[in-house]
Design goal:
CATH architecture: 3-Layer(aba) Sandwich
Structural class: alpha/beta
CATH topology: Rossmann fold
Oligomer: single chain
Strand order of the largest sheet: 3-4-5-2-6-7-1-8
Radius of gyration: 15 Å
Shape: globular
Largest sheet: 8 strands, mixed
Distance between the termini: 10 Å
Length: 170
């Protein structure tokens, strides 16, 4: 499993990291966002949306009550928030697998509700260090996706060039 970590100095850096990831994605991807309430999952998701080309006028919010928001972009974005998921049958009714393994980028907040820690994809764990800083850990789970490894390496180089804090490389 490939992994990499950075420390974000604040919301703007977390957003920029998500934008960079979104700009670099060229194929469908499943991205699973973990972290406590307030860790920055939705900020990171907003960055990915902007990087994919979602219109800046469209607000990117966590779909806590609707379970999924769909945004049209260069690659369609399907943003799930499973925090209030009470029954996995709700996901079946939504056609979750079609989105998660379809033709767009699927973001899942609270993926632990899937009850499958082995779900293949890019796992992103955001941990609060203090009021501003977040440690962001990336893990590739399942089949080695060479494109995502290249994307993570590019993000690592981006952080090095811009003197942002990098905890460890791939």
């Amino acid at each position: 499993m490939s992994s990499w970590s950075v420390v974000s100095g604040g919301e703007a850096q977390t957003l920029e990291l998500g934008k960079k990831l979104g700009r670099l994605l060229q194929r469908p991807a499943l991205i699973l966002l973990q972290g406590d309430l307030g860790a920055g999952k939705t900020v990171f998701a907003r960055g990915i949306a902007r990087g994919l080309g979602v219109d800046p006028e469209i607000p990117i919010t966590s779909p806590t009550f609707t379970l999924m928001n769909h945004y049209q972009a260069r690659l369609d974005l399907y943003h799930f928030d499973l925090y209030r998921l009470s029954d996995s049958d709700e996901l079946i009714e939504l056609g979750f697998d079609d989105y998660a393994y379809g033709s767009g980028v699927t973001l899942i907040e609270w993926p632990e509700k899937l009850d499958n820690p082995g779900t293949p994809g890019l796992w992103v764990n955001l941990k609060r260090i203090d009021e501003e800083r977040r440690e962001i850990n990336f893990f590739l789970q399942g089949e080695t996706n060479q494109e995502l490894i290249a994307v993570l390496q590019e993000i690592c180089h981006f952080y090095q060039r811009n003197n942002l804090s990098k905890a460890e490389g791939i």
